[in-house]
TrEMBL record:
SMART domains: PKS_KR. It comes from Bacterioplanes sanyensis. This is 3-oxoacyl-ACP reductase. Residues 234-409 form the Ketoreductase domain. Belongs to the short-chain dehydrogenases/reductases (SDR) family.
Amino acid sequence: MSNFYETMLNNNLGRNLLKTVGLPTPIELKRYRPEQATFFSGKVLLSGSDNAALLEDTLRNLKDSDAQVYFPAAARNAALLVNAGEKVGISLTGIECSKDMREKFDALIFDASGFSHAQDLDQLYYFFNPVMRRLNNNGRVLLLGRPPKQAQSGEQAAAMRALEGFSRSVAKEIGKKSATCQTLYVAEGADSAMDSSLRFLLSAKSAYVDGQVVTVRASKAASYPDWHKPLAGKVALVTGASRGIGEAIARTLSRDGATVVGLDIAPAEADLRRVMAEIAGEYIVADISKDDAPQQISDALKAQGGADIVVHNAGVTRDKTLANMPEHWWQMTIDINLAAEERINQALFDQGTLNKGGRIVCVSSMNGIAGQMGQTNYAASKAGVIGYVEYMADELAKKDITINAVAPGFIETAMTDAIPFMTREVGRRLNSLSQGGKPIDVAETIAFFANPASGGVSGNVVRVCGQSLVGA
């Protein structure tokens, strides 16, 4: 997709002009490429709190990458770090950390799972302060902790919740490097289920996910599948699959090994058939707002042996201020964006069409979190999606099914190309990474949720927005 702004950056005149009008020059994001052998390659600086409980599992994952792992030689828990490395068979190198050090890192990881009170937060300062300038472009910063709601005391809950404010602020400080920072909460008993989350957040697949929080709950641990084909043998339904974000989702799930069943309405049938033909998928032509759609979808999926992954991407916008909005615009938006998803899911549950270990992913929106002028109907529907996901996570855990949501921000599509040039360019920069995302960024996050190793990831809402300055 053409980007006039990026084209102008290729010459000095364009760069100077854009600098004059106050638009930042973004560093290109490094996204996933099939030739990348593992989920991470580069130098990692790792440390943790007293009684840090996630070091061994972190190192177990890093052992499967091309990481060179360092630790602060002066860390008071240096022996704990070395011992954790020995247990999993990975060698760690001690290094003197100071603002004058020459070494640079591709990831900084701190395991704060042992924090119990506010004074422990000092350890964040002592680890990060000397090395913040030593993070490479497109680097990763990751904070590990326990979910605040499962804390043993108010003091511990406060210390764990503080990780979110810290990580979101760090993300804004390092965004100019196209580097990201996230918090990963791992519940007690879920340590062995953290693999998919840690690998995704450290990898290039999360390039446009920034300043986010992912929580892993206790679940049956599953061995991590092949990095390049994690969805091999799975069947995935993608609604609204003919173009834009939906097409990217379909192509990405297919790339990862899934058989994709794409769905769209009759006017989009030609594009839908083309996309499905190119990825060897199947297609359903249906209007999800119709009464017979759930049964039609269930029947088509049963013909494929049931569904393992369901992605609710189809949606509409009908924008007007509330005072000027026709009633049918309101009803159409709520029905397609929210109620239809509920009806389809219920049919799949009732008829046993969603296989054991199933994954449901709903597409919400940044505007469902922050609201937007002229989008009361759309924002209500997308906020409703979040409420549905958060409630259903506990209900579906009994059936070994996960449900999560993505909330895209400024994603480059045909719709954004129609926005006036300067409005579009400013919109692209209103995030910590100073650039718009791509449909593939949304698709990668959905593929992470769909991963067989993501059984402990449920009830999460992850914004794919480069840490937009709008909303939470």
